[in-house]
What we know:
The complex is a heterodimer of chains A (115) and B (118).
Chain A: E1 5-7, E2 10-13, E3 19-24, E4 31-38, E5 42-50, E6 53-57, E7 64-68, E8 74-78, E9 87-94, E10 105-106, E11 110-114
Parallel strand pairs in A: 2-11
Antiparallel strand pairs in A: 1-3, 3-8, 4-5, 4-9, 5-6, 7-8, 9-10, 9-11
Chain B: E1 3-7, E2 10-14, E3 19-26, E4 33-38, E5 44-50, E6 56-58, E7 64-68, E8 73-78, E9 87-94, E10 106-108, E11 112-117
Parallel strand pairs in B: 2-11
Antiparallel strand pairs in B: 1-3, 3-8, 4-5, 4-9, 6-7, 7-8, 9-10, 9-11
Amino acid sequence: KAGVTQTPRYLIKTRGQQVTLSCSPISGHRSVSWYQQTPGQGLQFLFEYFSETQRNKGNFPGRFSGRQFSNSRSEMNVSTLELGDSALYLCASRKTGGSSTDTQYFGPGTRLTVL
Amino acid sequence: AQSVTQLGSHVSVSEGALVLLRCNYSSSVPPYLFWYVQYPNQGLQLLLKYTSAATLVKGINGFEAEFKKSETSFHLTKPSAHMSDAAEYFCAVSDLGNYGGSQGNLIFGKGTKLSVKP
């Protein structure tokens, strides 16, 4: 069974631009979560989508947004990029969402560099 | 609110030696706890998880962890380190939100980088 895939793997943008990252979950998984990983702040939860609805949201500004499609694929968008948005963005999928303790399976991440 | 503290950002052991990575959690209710491993330029891989069943949890690659409520700890151990164990390890707790029910998202510790010397 194919794992979680994320595209692109690497991205370089300049301040003020916007970026869209894509995540394809494991087949049959309906929940997709996004995390930001930086050396200073570590791993932080951005948001979770389940059945095309945002179920949970972390403490990030509104410049960070996401969506989920009917096939469970998800995208996250960051508008008006700042230098501090440089990070590894990880996507995780699991079978169900919300209060379930199903294992979250992580993708390889997208490394975003903002210049 | 839940939190996780990993003691030691870097741990170095010799090949064949015991691996002990420390994790302490803060939670007002019984938590769900996880250990993940991250190899360079890769995502996170689940090693093991505790969801209130047996307190000693066995995971992949010979790792295990013991849930100790009295010590609020969930330390990760492996009897004999291999060179291939060199990676960064993250302890995580499932966020319980404001009402005590799991929100599903994970709260991670800062991570511990494990080096294995030949």
